[in-house]
Write a structure and sequence with these properties.
Length: about 200
């Protein structure tokens, strides 16, 4: 069954310190309210407590180009995550525009690594726009880090996965699996009848 396959996979992704914890559920890293957004983001989204400006830049340089493009800034702030569907595009554009205003020193429309380090050392920080910690992982990652690690552990059994988040997560997997199986069946058909316009069908 899919649950039986997924549980070992999720457990294999847990950080070693968390697996060593014997209690049911894990305490997430926390930061002081006065901490800047980047520090909070690392703690909540990546479970990293020791901030390093260079490492932070590299972690969010998604295409390894030594620069942050507007699209990468959107992704870093999680603006395309489904949790931000209610945020209008004007607000999202403001996030990108303001970040470039602070860190794009030469005004070329991207933040180079050197610019980031220079501005960071000058004491400026990424702004908190009130849109959350910045979810930019895939569904599997977000479920693991924000739910599985908090409420489940290495002793989790299939029957323990009863939280609404568990049910929704596996519902999506079932839908994806069913869609993949359907596509596989369609691909094996010599002629896909559903793709033939009705007027050309002989029945």
């Amino acid at each position: 069954m899919y649950f039986a396959f997924l549980i070992p996979l999720l457990l294999s992704l847990l950080p070693t310190p968390l697996l060593a914890h014997s209690g049911h559920g894990q305490a997430p890293l926390t930061t002081a309210p006065e901490e800047d957004w980047a520090t909070q983001h690392l703690a909540e989204e990546h479970h990293i407590s020791n901030f390093d400006a260079g490492a932070f830049f590299t972690l969010h340089d998604f295409d390894s180009s030594f620069s942050w493009t507007p699209d990468e800034i959107r992704r870093m702030y999680g603006l395309d995550d489904e949790s931000q569907r209610g945020v209008d595009e004007a607000k999202k554009a403001e996030v990108v525009r303001r970040t470039l205003e602070i860190f794009d020193v030469d005004g070329d429309g991207a933040v180079q690594r050197g610019e980031w380090m220079e501005v960071w050392r000058a004491g400026k920080r990424l702004e908190d726009f009130g849109l959350g910690p910045g979810h930019h992982g895939d569904d599997e990652y977000e479920y693991e880090i924000h739910h599985f690690e908090k409420f489940h552990d290495e002793n989790t059994k299939e029957e323990d996965l009863t939280h609404p988040e568990d049910i929704e997560h596996f519902r999506k997997h079932d839908e994806q699996e069913a869609a993949a199986e359907h596509q596989e069946q369609m691909d094996r058909m010599p002629i896909v009848e559903q793709n033939i316009p009705q007027k050309f069908r002989r029945y």
